[in-house]
Amino acid sequence: MIRFLLPFLTYLLFISESTLMQVFTPQHMDNETIIIPRFVVIMVCFIGMYITPMRGVLYGVAFGLLYDLIFTDLIGVYMFSMGLTAYITTFIARYFHGNIFVTLFVMIIGLSAFEFLVFGLYTLIDIANMNLEIFVYQRYLPTLLLNCVFVVLVYYPLRKWLINIAIDLEEK
């Protein structure tokens, strides 16, 4: 059952992202702020940190490909970015004692790396039509704030559940 519950929860987060995205679009707000929930990226980083790094990277590549297939016209940007973000956060978290503050800091680094990597790749291939200053103030900072609140809210239950999954997987 555990084998199916983790991908299912990650998929539910994927679905909830697109649902929340419809609520936080600029048409529903009075300002030009763009808030993008990155719950799957956070989940993938948690999986890499608390289960195994390889599992986090595999989930990152798989759900990144799902992002690319459903939301974008270019395959590979989210797949590469999410896998690399899982690897980076797992690598950084390996050297620190895991508490909520360290995890939040590592997630900020991971989310920042993810956002700037996607923005940089899209700018490189001339798809992004936004300069860096507008990106930082209208998209990156509000997105980072929303996702940091999400990390704080899910840290304790998700960490405990993923540690239990890691223990169960080691026993098998």
From TrEMBL:
The keyword Membrane applies. Pfam families: MreD (PF04093). It is found in: Cell membrane. It comes from the Bacteria. The chain crosses the membrane at residues 34-51, 58-80, 100-125, 137-158. It is a multi-pass membrane protein. Keywords: Cell membrane, Cell shape, Membrane, Transmembrane, Transmembrane helix. Its main location: membrane. Belongs to the MreD family. NCBIfam families: shape_MreD. This is Rod shape-determining protein MreD. The gene is mreD.
